[in-house]
Each structure stands twice: as C-alpha cells, then as structure tokens.
Amino acid sequence: MLKRPFKLATTSFIYPGHIIPNVKKIGAFFDEIELLVFESKPEAVMPRRDDVRELTELSRDLDLTYNVHLPTDINLSAPDHRLRRDAADTLKRVIERFSIAPVTSFTLHLEMDKPMPSQDGIKAWQNNARQGLELLVPTLEDPAKISVETLWYPPDLFKDLINEFGLSVCADLGHHIKYGYDIPRTFELFGPKINLIHLHGVDTRLEPPRTHIGLDEMVPGEFRKIMDHLKHYTETVSIEVFKLAHLQGSLEALSKIFNGIPCI
C-alpha cells in the first residue's frame, strides 16, 4: 500500500442538483472540488456572486480548494473571430466571478472539429487558438492557472501554445485511454506543467468506449497503466464522474493501491 502523494478531488455533480449542496455533502472527504461550470448561456445558469461567496465560506469550513471547469458551450479556437471574442469575454467573466474563491486552476477546452483535419487545417486551428488566447491571456493575473485539457486530438498539437502563453495542462487520462494516446509521452511533453489530472473509468470493451464511469469497471491492464503515473504525482487528481456509485467504485479501486482514500 502506497502513501497517496496527490491531492484528491471529485466533481460538484455527484448528487443531482446545484453545486453548493454537493460541496456540503462531499467536501469534507476531499482536498478539492471540481466545480462544473459547463454552461454559460443563459446567464442565469452561471453561479451567482452570492454562490461564490458561499463556496468561499465553505472552503474555509471544510478546509478545501476548488478547480473550475470552464464553459464548454463556447469556442475560443473557433474559425470565426466573433465567436472567439464572445468566448474570451465569457471566460473572463467566469474567471472574474470566482476571483474571491480559493481556485487552483481553471480547466479550458480548446475545441477542434472532427475528423482530424489536414496539416493545413491543423495550422489554421492552431492560429485560431492562438488568436483566441491572445484575447484572454493578457487580462489574467496568472496565466498558469489556465489548464488546457487533453481532448480527442493528440496533445502534441497544443504544446507550442502552452509554452507561448505560459499555460498549464489538465491531463485527462480517461481520454488518453479512450482515444489511444500515449500517457507517458504526455508526461514527457508537459512534465510539471500538468497541474491537474482528470481521472475516470473507461470501458474499452464497448464501441464506442464508455467513459466517466467507475475506475473499478476498467480493464485491469488499463487501470494499472493509469495508476503507474499517480504514484509520484503531487498535484490534484480529480475523479471526474457524475454519479455516487461511480465515485464509490473509483474510491474503492484507489484504496487498494493508496492509503488515505476516503470511503463515502
């Protein structure tokens, strides 16, 4: 049994409903909570300033921090400049709203349309993403708090953007398993820039693979492949599932390897 080296987190949607009741129910078991702010429109769906104040108070009471998953209904890498500007404005608004809370990172999607584009298409996407980041990053106090998530395309494609803008990386290891990307290569590419890991089960026996399930439902070899990279990782690992049963199964699987895993 190994000592757990990483901070442990999970999402704010383990129980159906609002963020705050979830934090109250599960916050005492974790070091950090991943606040899901997937939607930005209409404005009413976003956490209110009063909500953020309450979350800040809860962080003190429960001795925890937060990471915020930024909205996914916008596109900072869109081909249309107007859409990029709208995305940047929305992201700035969300980040500003959480400015009083103890947030360690903000997870950002740089979206790319499927299927994989040609080399020219990749260059165009990188240029669009660069222009989108130019609208956002100069307004930030600490660009390294922006953590670009690995999605369905090769993580190599945004390496230059990470370095150019001083950003961090959210390594979604479930996505790596689902799409067949090399986990050791991502750690070699980004090293200490990986300030957050998204961890969720993937059942590759299904087509398409089923994701965001309990870690206990994974093929054993693939589970071990992920665990090898957690043994020396000292930043935040967020169990990114959205059901209590999936969280419980994940915690049980982790508890067979690491000490200090809670039971809920």
Secondary structure tally, helices: 9
Query: Regions with pLDDT < 50 over 5+ consecutive residues?
Result: none
CATH topology: TIM Barrel
Q: How many domains make up the coordinates? A: 1
Helicity, as a percent range: 25-40%
Q: Summarize the main sheet.
A: 8 strands, parallel, barrel
| Structural shape | globular
Total number of strands: 12
* Overall CATH class: Alpha Beta
The CATH homology group name = Divalent-metal-dependent TIM barrel enzymes
Residue fraction in strands: 15-25%
Question: How widely separated are the two ends?
Answer: 20 Å
- Alpha carbon gyration radius: 18 Å
Instruction: Sketch the topology as an H/E string, one letter per element.
Output: EEHEHEHEHEHEHHEEEHEHE
CATH-scheme architecture? Alpha-Beta Barrel
Average pLDDT number: 97
- Please give the order of strands in the largest beta sheet: 2-3-4-5-6-7-8-11
Could you outline the blueprint of secondary structure elements for this entry?
Elements: E1 2-3, E2 7-11, H1 19-26, E3 32-36, H2 49-62, E4 65-69, H3 81-97, E5 103-108, H4 119-136, E6 146-149, H5 159-165, E7 168-172, H6 173-179, H7 183-190, E8 194-199, E9 201-203, E10 210-213, H8 220-227, E11 236-239, H9 244-255, E12 258-259
Parallel strand pairs: 1-12, 2-3, 2-11, 3-4, 4-5, 5-6, 6-7, 7-8, 8-11
Antiparallel strand pairs: 9-10
